């Protein structure tokens, strides 16, 4: 049997309305100057960190292993090269998940969002310079605190230049990339389908872009904070007016206008898809109401002052009427999801029920850029429910359920054994109810992880669910789950540049990152105090471990610590990552440091997801 289209859950009900509309293709190609050929970027050791040429198969007709709408989105997003957005404004697209934008100033070029990896950012800048001259980078702007908008900064900056970012950038970057970075990275492997073969039956993008690069990640902390809407900064002769949008696509994000050029940057607040209110990799739930309000404010602030609007992903919008319509539909998209979800909640419906009941207005269905290629109506409605009411749906039976493995064993027992469960699942699969077939087979796999038949059947169901998904991240989750059921756990690639990211943190953030790695049970009986005297900061921080909790504060006086370390903040990173202790002074019992490091957990980068 072929794939089953699950359009309603993905955020679209029809594909025939506007299916002959090719205006997106014209806009995606507008201003093209040149492409990188070949579109392959390698690291210093020869490892391929980006290969956009692997998506050449998207030039063909849509197969029955892909949703036609997602295939169309892939064809658009896979376009690659240097594009002119407006006089003096250029974008490099298709060399990473995100776009790099370059704005020519009086003496050089300002880079907006330098991609994920140093290598792809350097390749993008090289493509620009090959066609626009060897202009120096005179400033960097991070639109927000997700890694695809700052991680490649060392690929474009050699010396000191102004780095602009929204207020709260560093706190947001740490919470998303350090505190639970291991778990997010593991789930991101599913979300972006990084281990899948690129092809009609494999990874065809993620809706927002094609995939993530795998090069070296770095971070230069901002030197200029944007603290309020209306703030103006002149950077290399370019006047820029900002709108802060906290709590939208990122806890720290901003839109901004170049008023003298009538060009508007919408960051990642308005892209060519329904975005995530909570990402499948995991994140703090975003506020759909605030998101809609900031989009409306952007229309009020900027619509009369711009002729082109670009974003950190996808392609621009040209013309004031088109910009207003585009931003208005994006605003209505998030407002409708928010308001209708709350209406259903107040009628007593749970998040799962509300997601099934949600029907989008015809005007939003007709617009391609509101389709659920990256976020989905289904999981965004559940995110809104989670934001307001949390994980519990109010049913006492759901208050204290068994964990998945223990629950699965009991379900299989009640249904008469594993063979009966598998037979029932096959029956539902054959009737086209892939969702319930997956639920039954998931119970079977968790009850008997070594049952090859159950794993293969579940993998086949996941294949069909993936092929029928308009949402790129749902497809990748299903197909990656299928891959792991058949081949075992895919090991996460090493995180290149993670130490560089840690070096950019404040010492307070570093202590927070250590605290969340304390194994409470191993540390219950430990009681120790360490003073960290930072010569470069002129401060002393005291960490106290007791009752399995690491507390840190700036130290002024009090009892003598068990150990005092004299070091720089850079040396602290070397200590806590086990990279070395050279050049660090100490007084007291040095074994105390070993006891502290001994109770730090080593996170499991390859924890199971589709098996117990």
Would you give an account of this structure?
There is one protein chain. The protein has 612 residues and is α+β, with helices and mostly antiparallel strands. It contains 21 helices and 21 strands. An eight-stranded mixed sheet has the order 1-4-5-6-7-8-9-10, covered by helices on one side. The chain has a six-stranded mixed sheet with strand order 11-12-13-14-15-16, with helices on one face. Strands 19-18-17-20-21 form a five-stranded mixed sheet.
Topology readout:
Layout: H1 7-10, H2 23-29, E1 32-34, E2 40-42, E3 48-51, H3 68-77, E4 81-86, E5 89-93, E6 100-104, E7 109-112, H4 118-132, E8 137-141, E9 163-166, H5 169-179, H6 181-191, E10 224-226, E11 232-235, E12 238-244, E13 254-258, E14 263-265, H7 288-302, E15 308-310, E16 317-318, H8 320-345, H9 351-357, H10 362-366, H11 377-389, H12 404-414, H13 418-430, H14 434-447, H15 452-467, H16 472-487, H17 498-503, H18 507-515, H19 520-523, E17 528-534, E18 539-546, E19 549-554, E20 563-567, H20 569-576, E21 585-588, H21 591-598
Parallel strand pairs: 7-8, 8-9, 9-10, 14-15, 17-20
Antiparallel strand pairs: 1-4, 2-3, 4-5, 5-6, 6-7, 11-12, 12-13, 13-14, 15-16, 17-18, 18-19, 20-21
